[in-house]
Amino acid sequence: MSSDATYQRAGRLEVRALEKRYDDERTGDSVLALERADFEVEGGEFVALLGPSGCGKTTILNIVAGFISQTAGEVLVDGQAISGPGADRGVVFQSFALFPWKTVRANVAFGPKMRGMDKQERRQLADEYLELVGLSGFEDKYPHELSGGMQQRVGVARVLANQPAVMLMDEPFASVDAQTRMTLQEELTRIWQERRPTIVFVTHDVEEAVFLADRIVVLAPHPGRVREIVEVPLTRPRVWDDILGNDRFKETVHHVLGLLKAPQVTEQPTVEAET
Amino acid sequence: MPSLMALRRRAVNLLWFIAPFAALALVWVVAVELTDVPSRVFPALAEVWSAGVGMVADGSLWQHVGVSLQRTVTGAALAAVISIPFGILMGISRPVAAYFSPILRFSVALAGIAWIPLATLWFGFGNRAVIFIIFNAVFFSLTYNTMLGVSRIAPDMHRAARSLGAPRYRMFTEVYLPGSLPSVVTGLRIGMGYAWRGLIAAEIIATSAGLGYMLFLARRFYHTDIIVLSMIIIGLIWLAMDRFLLAPLERRTVERWGMVAGATR
User: Fold this and answer.
1) Is it the case that residue A35 has pLDDT exceeding 60?
2) How far apart are CA A208 and CA A240, in angstroms?
3) How distant is the Cα of A62 from the closest Cα of chain B, in angstroms?
4) Residue B16 CB contacts under 8 Å (≥ 6 apart), including other chains
5) Which of B163, B174, B175, B183 to mutate to probe the A interface, most A CBs <10 Å?
6) What value of ipTM does the predicted structure carry?
């Protein structure tokens, strides 16, 4: 589960000295959104990117997804530098981003359809993944007919059915209610254990990160940078009923919260005033 | 098989749809009766009815309606085939959409009737001038709304498709076209509204057949019964087109998908 695994699975992600500068069109200044981020995600590993807003976690995800380009550094998936979005990196969005004009099944079958899989085959594949996320019986519904939690299950199935090397998740459960969120988190760990996709999960919720991940990349803001990478010492399977009372869970949450709260440390000489 | 309940509901809906027209007809009958207005000024309902029966019997009504509908369909189809791809292309790039937006809004305001003089200069008096007016009325509104629809597709939708492996050329049919459909339907409805008015005006001026011509010809002979008959038919055909063509299009796509149509002119 950790980096000393004896074999290398596909789906290894390397983020090397990644930097992103934006030009502020109003002032003409360039703003450093992300400063030299370095980390690796092993094939089949579950890593969370955690931090407050302005820490560059979504910037990292958008660069890895190929939606925006970095100003320096590189991103490698299984040793290959990425360029632009691609089917090797599937994204689960906070907004779900399901196609409202397609049925649930057609949404899940979209990636395979783009790969040229024939209709019968991709229909079967979609139904299989819908079963995996517990949505059998909803294949012919349209997304707007489902609850938010169910829509995001479709979002997860849609990415998994496309068998990407890396699954990127951008605060995927931030817009569902707390009860549903806990169910979805448990479901996600179950599915991850079953299928072992590589997952990069962006969140600002400490407990969520600790509950889900093998390792947490804790980020600090202004400029966004990696603060520390924390190993999560919890066994699997994980369910909230057991985890909430678990001392190691509490200790890890406490430790990570400390990292997020700690004042700016001395390694940065000066920090200019906030914009 | 629709259930009895559904049939009943449909019948009730139809009654509510007809009720205001029935009321209007009643007012008409009573008003003509009371004021004894000469039929050269305004015809009685019965006169319009018998004029209608006469024109149905000798086939002239169908001829005019047929010509008008044919022109409408030709012009609108031509516009749709050109406007939708054109609007999508412009909408893909936000700067391009922003650049063309004012000129298109300007053109939407002018579309249709204001072009009749130029249309007759370019195409002479006849079918082609009328079809041009219809094309023109639908074209600007549909192009503008398609463009707007594409530029309003959520960026995440675009990103999702690309990261699921959609190549750029497939984005047209997989994302841009369905994603802009609420707006396309709105554009078509508005454009058809302009086109229908434009058609009547153009037929009055430019041809010797069609509903507009029928209206114009009747005026020359003080046939107020035929004038009013033409007006009624023009309105009824529009209602029928909206109810049996445009509304079902909206129901089968936008409403079924839970997408809200943005009313944009």
Assistant:
1) yes
2) 10
3) 10
4) none
5) B163
6) 0.88
Statement: residue A275 has pLDDT above 60: no
- Helix, coil or strand: residue A39: strand
Residues B3 and B116 in one domain: no
- Do residue B77 and residue B199 come from a single domain? yes
- Asked whether residue B265 is domain-assigned, the answer is no
Supply the CATH number for residue B243's domain. Answer: 1.10.3720.10
Number of domains in chain B: 2
Token pair, residue A197, equals 């996709």
Top-level class of domain A10-88+166-245+257-268: alpha beta
Instruction: Tell me the pLDDT band of A30, cut-offs 50, 70 and 90.
Output: confident
Residue A46 C-alpha, separation from nearest chain B C-alpha, in angstroms: 20
Structure tokens at A201: 């999960």
Q: Is the pLDDT of residue B1 over 90?
A: no
Q: How far apart are the first and last CA of chain A?
A: 41
First-residue to last-residue Cα distance in chain B:
39
Query: Phi first, then psi: what are they for A78, rounded to 5°?
Result: 50, 45
A97 vs B157, B167, B253: nearest CB = B157
Considering the domain architecture, whether residues B73 and B1 belong to the same structural domain is answered as no
Residue A19 CA, chain-centre distance (Å), reads 19
- Average model confidence (pLDDT) for chain A? 91
pLDDT digits (tens, 9 = 90+) for A153-182: 999 999 999 999 999 999 999 999 999 999
Shared-domain flag, residues B165 and B86: yes
B91 with B202, same domain: the answer is: yes
Q: Which of B156, B164, B251 to mutate to test the interface with A (most CBs of A within 10 A)?
A: B164
Q: What is the pLDDT of residue A264?
A: 54
- Please write the tens of the pLDDT for every residue from A48-90: 999 998 899 999 999 999 999 999 999 999 999 999 999 999 9
Q: Is B256 strand, coil or helix? A: coil
8 Å CB contact of B163 and A86: yes
